[in-house]
Amino acid sequence: MRFMARHGIAIANVLMALTRSPSAPTRPAHPKVTGPDHPERGDVPGWVMITLMSAVLVAALLALAGPALEAMFNQAMDTVGK
Q: What is the Cα–Cα distance from 75 to 45, expressed in whole angstroms?
């Protein structure tokens, strides 16, 4: 939930920055969130690792099951074409 709330605020700040007139004063998006030791900083390397592991898993499954999936698809297309 904190992830969505934090990113929702960030998206709102970007939208406000895009719609603000050039002469309007600017202020930092999160003045209290500074420094690397903030508890809501997030775990970017962890998310990158999860994403890469998921991509590798999908590629491995596709490599193993690809011929069987292709055969099933071709059989289905032949059945529909008749």
A: 43
What are the boundaries of each domain within the chain? 1-38, 43-82
* Per-residue pLDDT at 14 exceeds 90: no
CA atoms within 13 A of residue 14's CA, in its CB half-sphere: 6
Query: Largest Cα–Cα distance of the chain, in whole Å?
Result: 69
Amino acid at position 41, single letter: R
User: Per residue in 39-79, pLDDT tens?
Assistant: 666 677 888 999 999 999 999 999 999 999 999 999 999 99
- How many other β-carbons are positioned within 10 Å of the β-carbon of residue 26? 8
Find where tokens 């934090």 sit.
6
Give the span between the Cα atoms of 14 and 25, in whole angstroms: 15
